[in-house]
Amino acid sequence: MGIKVGIDLGTTFCAVAMIGDDGKAAVIPNEMGERLTPSVIQFFDDGSYIVGADAKEALDYGEEGCAAVFKRSMGESGVYCSFYGRDYTAQSLSEIMLRELKKQAEKVTGQRIDEAVVTVPAYFGELQREPTLRAAKDAGLNVRQLVSEPTAAAMNYAADHFRENAKVLIYDLGGGTFDLTLVQMKKNDRVDVIRTTGNSMLGGKNWDEELAKLLVQKIEEDVEYTECDIHTHALREAEKVKIALSSAMKARAHFTLDDYGSCTVEVTREEFDDATAHLREKTRGLCINLLDSMKLSWRDINAVVLVGGSTRMPQIKKFIKQMSGREPLSRVNPDEAVAIGAAIMANLKAQPYAVQKITNDESVIRTLRKGSVPAKETAVESLQKLSVSDVVAHTLGKVTVNRDGTGYKNQIIIRENSVIPVKVAVAEQFYTKDEGGNESEIIMLQGSSENVRECTAVCRYIVSGIEHDPTHNPTILKVQYSYDANGIVHVQARQGDSDKDLPAKKLPAPDDMSRYYEGISAPPAKAKAEPLRIMMAVDVSGSMTGRPMEEAKKAMCRFIDEFSCYPGDVKIGAMAVSDRTQVVCELTNDLTACREKVGEIEVCMTGLCNEADPFDEILNRLAVARGKKVGVVLADGVWSYRDKAITRAKRCAAMGINIIGMGFGEADEEFLKAISSGEIGAIKVELDELTPTFGKIAQELGGGRGGKSRRLFGGSKTPPTECETWPAPGEQT
Ligand code: ADP
Ligand code: MG
User: Fold this and answer.
1) 3-state secondary structure of 681
2) Which of 91, 118, 283, 440 could be a cystine partner for 131, CB 3.0 to 4.6 Å?
């Protein structure tokens, strides 16, 4: 049997840990006997490479072919570095790193690695987690889970210092990232992560850069020497000086300058601390926000645990003591805590999915129920009792058309700090187009703002195989959104009552998201279409009995549906006409209500024959309306008072109302032409063609969702409703 390991894939250092025969988790040293492996790779011209301490040394000496700090660029598209004609991405470099760690750990332990938990900064979003997971899989690891670094550190702490109800703040300042996580220890040896936040661009490297600036400044003061390369020299020295200043009050850096010879500069700890005060302050801001969001004060925090190599700087300990009023704990080894915690987590049972509920306050969905407490059961005795629940750092949403159709917004689906794994399923109306190939596009966002521009587009899904509904009614698409235990996004879709998932392809987010930025804060004029007012009139005389009436109503509904995404103000009304006219629906922008009223129209509701005409009522309602005015009149026979109808229709035309005369059956084409006006004019069709023709007319008037082969899901004006969830990808049921 092989082993289960935890791997801390750090920006500057990596570590691998496992639970030993004594039931204690410990770091596995690398082939050189070191517990930490620098995250540095040196490539040679034949394509071979070395990893770890030797590569780091080469980097420090400024040798060719060295790649470092690539974790910071995880998720950025494109090449991170190129050596000897080969390109490397942050993902491919991570893969090399992980493969090497695996190889060495297997060699040192003499055992095969069966499963691995790989850690990532809590603040890593979809764009960083997805390539990290792929890198680990491509490195030949069977990845049990990606877990957040501070969560792993909390597990390491809890394994030795469990105290029920204690609230512990994990302050994790590594080489490239800062993570801040609040955990609470609960009954039944549960460790719950409550909040997590951070900054993926803040770490020891920033302290190095400030120190390098300070060194350059000092050299220039001393020797009036300016060489463009000096900053690179200084940066190389900075980390050493920084580390020296952690144990001494002053430290020196030596430089060999061309044309000048060697020089030495001295920096005091005080100078260094002053020059980096703004960096400490950035972490204070995040601490305060986190406590505020929980309505907690420092007094409510039982312990602050320091993790990450950069918390070795005395300034950090001092700063935390001064901020929190208590001595921070360094009972965990800040370099090893993450790997050890990950090794513990590699032996815990998987957590069940939490199911989220939609609340009524318009598309806001939040967690109402947490995952149930899992059975307490782990592989290793001494750690058997622990269980952990983690949260996600980023709010998940999708691009959707806003309520008045004037632009796009981020529709929030799962809030940040929701327990993971988590899923939510919603049902929405979806309009298929007439023939074949119905697809829907769903663009996923991370970020809490409703403004798409302020969010990160993380991926998109193309849902295909949506079956066309020949009745032209909207079909129901159920879509399930989830964050798996790795914090990675999944989208699944089902049509109607089917229990089969439709094909859903995950693709990178669109390169250019700018079209979705328009019209959110200030809708540009061009995005908005002119107001539209439409009165529909349908002949309900006796000759419409049976199929004609059914088809007419279906066509009218389809017509209304086409305007569900109209990019402007649209109002539609409907009336029945035979011996009398009756307005069944006054002009309204509530298209769902209008559709319902049309459904209630019945044959002969206003008499058996065709004595009346609809034009006076149309004129009444549209004459003074704003925008484009249209009357759609559907008839199947000949009207009793033709001339009167034509005169009234002409009056409508004179008031700028476009009349579309639609007929089928015995309808008289000459008459239809006489009552029609405007660009579209008179149309005579067969009964079968009625619905598609109504669809086309609607599209010509500026409606239309059916016209595009693929449309953005979520354009419907009817809000999504909650529906039953189903198994998520990889969910064990
Ligand atoms: P990561 O996990 O991001 O690789 P680590 O937690 O291993 O980061 O921390 C590495 C960072 O800690 C580096 O920036 C390194 O310079 C810094 N560091 C390590 N030891 C010390 C020390 N004694 N004093 C100050 N900084 C240190
Ligand atoms: Mg680390």
Assistant:
1) coil
2) 91
Side-chain-side CA neighbours of 299 within 13 Å: the count stands at: 1
Extract the tokens encoding 136.
């680990």
* Rg of the chain, C-alpha, whole Å: 34
- Go through the domains of the chain in sequence order and give each one's CATH number: 348-529+707-733 (2.60.34.10), 532-701 (3.40.50.410)
Which residues is 444 bridged to in the sheet?
A: 398, 459
Element (H, E) at 632: strand 628-635
Q: Which residue has the higher pLDDT, 488 or 698?
A: 488
* Whole-prediction pTM: 0.73
CB 219, CB 231: distance < 8 Å: no
pLDDT for residue 159: 86
**Locate tokens 């850690």: which residue?**
119
pLDDT digits (tens, 9 = 90+) for 426-481: 988 887 765 556 888 999 999 999 999 999 999 999 998 888 776 667 788 899 99
How far apart are alpha carbons 42 and 200 in whole angstroms?
25
Mutate to test the pocket of ligand 1, among 310, 319, 338 (most ligand atoms within 8 A of CB): 310
- Least confident window among 580-589, 657-666, 699-708: 699-708
CB 710, CB 441: distance < 8 Å = yes
Q: Which of 8, 13, 333 to mutate to test the pocket of ligand 1 (most atoms within 8 A of CB)?
A: 13
Report how far residue 516's alpha carbon sits from residue 520's, in angstroms, rounded to the nearest whole number. Answer: 8
Q: How far apart are CA 174 and CA 313, in angstroms?
A: 11
Q: Is 121 in the pocket of ligand 1 (CB under 6 A)?
A: no
Average pLDDT over residues 605-631: 90
Distances (CA, A) of 58 to 53, 68, 262: 9, 11, 21
Rounded CA separation 521/468 (Å): 35
